[in-house]
Predict the structure.
Amino acid sequence: MKKAPVMAGMTLPQKLRYIWDYYKLPLFAAALFLYIVIYVIVRIATHRDPSFYLCAVNVPLTEEGRAMLDPDGAAEIVDGLYLVEDAEGDLHQLVYASRMKILGSIDAEKLDLVLMDSQGLDAFAEENFLLPLDDLFDDDPEISSSLVSATVILSDNRTETLLDDSIPYQAVTEDMIVAVDLSSTALAATEGWTQPVYLAIIRNSHRTDTALSCIRRLFTQ
């Protein structure tokens, strides 16, 4: 004789209680798995890489300034970074953290543009991080007249001097056109910068065309 089903004769609340008591762990595991699958699908479907990555070094940025740099709101802009000489106390820690963040983003080939003051320009140029801009704006007289050069260290004996302080420091340098002075742009007027601020493209950027378009756009606003 067949055995009657366990839930035979149970009321609906009793059936629900029975299912919960005996199957809650499998149900929870199934629900968690379904949640993870849906979450991954949604993230893949909605993920969009930023149009470009920009960091502002030694330069304050307002929300209006950000909007002028990125009218579509599709870029990733990081400010609050500092590279200054002879920093002490809390500023020294901030400079160290900024440098580590910048180096990490460049090593990861993530950073495209850098907005900076003269100290930042010198720091980036010395490390040969910036893309030479020769001939890239020959079709635009205003941008061409705003191009600036900086001293690039092509090679040096820094490592040797660190190991032996009796060795004099020597370096092979070259002046290269690596940045654009934004003093004549609407962005500079909007931000109220009292000193020259420069925009440059990182040498190993994978979005050079987008970075060039950003520079051109700033001179047409």
